[in-house]
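Re: the pair you flagged

First of the two:
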Amino acid sequence: MTQGAQQDRCKVALVLGSGGARGYAHIGVIEAMEARGFEIISISGCSMGAVVGGIYAAGKLSEYRDWVCSLDYLDVLRLVDVTWSPMGAMRANKVMEKLDALIHDIQLEDLSIPLTTVATDMIRQREVWFQHGPLLRAIRASIAVPGVITPVTLGDQVLVDGGLLNPLPIMPVLAAHKADIVMAVNATAHSPQPVSLEEMLPAAEVSVEQEVAGESGETVGRWMRDVRRATQRLWHGLGSLADDKDADATSDAEARGKREWGKLDMILQSFDITQAALAKYKIAGYPPDILVEVPKTVCSAYEFHRASELIRLGRHLADEALERHLGVEARRTLPGAETPGSADDYYNDNDDTVS
């Protein structure tokens, strides 16, 4: 049997982890798998993994990809709907309105690919798995980063980002007994040394980026000036929510806005560190057949204007991981080699909450 024939029949249970903007790499991973003929038969996702997994299962990934790749820094700022709620700094209403326009009122049980999204119940301090009900609600609960995006209240549950307890939800797909392999994408991977997105991309693609920017750097310069102006407007917007009646009050409000934004940055970076450690434990406890790791240093969790680069990075890392897997499988099929295990070998009972 040829490798191509094997790939055409290979059924994959896919795990998409949290990671903020780095979760755009999930799109590239899916593209790489489809290009090789793999069939995704089950998905579990957390946070951005829930977003990408849900949209893919709903058949709207190409439209979502086109949208996020069109966003520049200023567009991302326009999507930020600030609130002074003590439960979170942002509501995420504008983003959810866009997702609603894509997937409407589709139910999880009606998706063509079984999907589990993971959130965290702050009251009971345990995971909540969404496998039934509105897809939009399941996504919104899974992306509610504590202190950053307001939580979702569902009955007596207060639901926040599933990454708080399980940034790489491998367990839900291990029940997909028809899967040939389990593939996980960890978008909060720890790296011994900080590595940038440019360093991770193949040299040819980096040179293309530089060419697009222009040898003189004028495009980059304009972009940076736009960033500074936009950020100044953002600080002014944050300050104007207070009762700033004179110039001194405005200055104080702007300074307070900057401090609050610094706090958000600190929350997100702290969340990244915690998720990276938790993901390592999940991988050790339930090792996937194929693991794609996106270092958490390639970009900040909120750099949502870098979708094109991150998608390319996901595709590149997935190609490398799939090549390694195919090489290992080829060696295992040699006479005398052990027969590779299946996802069933990893399946164990668990006490996670299922909703």
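Second of the two:
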Amino acid sequence: MLDQIVANAPVYLLICGRCFALVMTLPLFSLRNVPRISKVAFTGYLAYLVFPHVNFSIYAPYLAGGAISLQFVLLLAGEVLLGIITGFYVTIIFSAFSTAGQFFAFQMGFSASEVYDALSQVENPLMGQFFNLIAMLIFLQNHWAQRLFARALVSSFDSLSAFSIVAGQEKILRFLLGGLSNLFFDAFVIALPIMGTLLLINVAMGILSKAAPMMNLMSEGFPTMILVSFFIISVLMPNLCEYFSHSFDGAFTALERLYASIATGGRP
């Protein structure tokens, strides 16, 4: 196996380029706390596993000049871009759960409690970070990470090449824009029960403040909304976990359909 890798070093470098771009853009794997040497080692291990299943005969005419030619550099840049596109789409999926927490964090009174989220690497309210952690646990528990690296990554090498970016650029752009649209839709669906309940509480508190002007809403309204919000989250958590899993399933199915749709479009 090692002899084949050494004999086909340019092809192995192309595989490493896509795997490294994917690892560097995926949530959890792209954390700054993870040493860079660990990411490089994980990338080499992925490329070692994927190498026997990859057929890069389409690149054979462009690898005649070796790994120092301009054509090889352009092919490597295309492979890196394909890995970034895949990792960016998975990041969009997780951003939906984080955005859902941001939608109702202001109504709960947690809008000022923004902390640095190590998963999304941005300033995120506590509820957004909480939903992001729950989604990450579901992602790992249901073996979506294994499916991403074992099936989606291998199938991407079978159907996508650097030429696919040029041949299917319109489909890829439409796919990513559709993912951004689904981000806000999923976030709104997740946050809608809590946002609707908090809206009713705010209306009730407004009526009570008119009936009893001496009522202190700061000392009574916010604790009520926080308690009710956590109660709703605890009751809906099984349904939310099921919806999270359904979102991952639909997202990976859409990703596989994208690979299949441009499988024949990346041939020069």
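The radius of gyration is 23 Å.

-B.
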